[in-house]
Amino acid sequence: MNQIFFEITLVLVLATVLGMIARALKQPTILGYIATGLIVGPLGLMRLNNLASIDALAQFGIAFLLFLVGLEIDLNDIKAVGKNVILVGLGQVVLTAALGFGLALGLGFQLLPALYLGITLTFSSTIIVVKILSEKRTLGSLHGKLTVGILLIQDLIALFLLILLSSFSGAGAAAGIPWAIFGLTLLKAVLALALALAFGRWVAPRLFRSLAGSQEMLFLTSLAWGLGFAALVALPQVGLTLEIGSFFAGLALARTVEHHQIAGRVKSLRDFFLVMFFIILGSKVALTNVAAAWVPIAVFSFFVIVGNPLIVMVLMGLRGYRARTAFLTALGMGQVSEFSLVVVTLGATLGHIGNLVVATVTAVAIVSIAVNSYLLQRGDELYRILLPFLRLFEFRQPVAEDAASHHDMEGHVVLIGCDHMGESILHSLRQAWNDVLVVDFNPDVVKRLKQRGIHSLYGDISDPEIQEHAGLDRARLVISTVPNLADSEHLLSHVFNTNGSAKVVVTAGDEASAKRLYKRGADYVLIPQLIGARHLAEIIGKDAKLELLKPLREHDLELFKSSAA
Question: What is the model's pTM?
Answer without folding.
Answer: 0.72
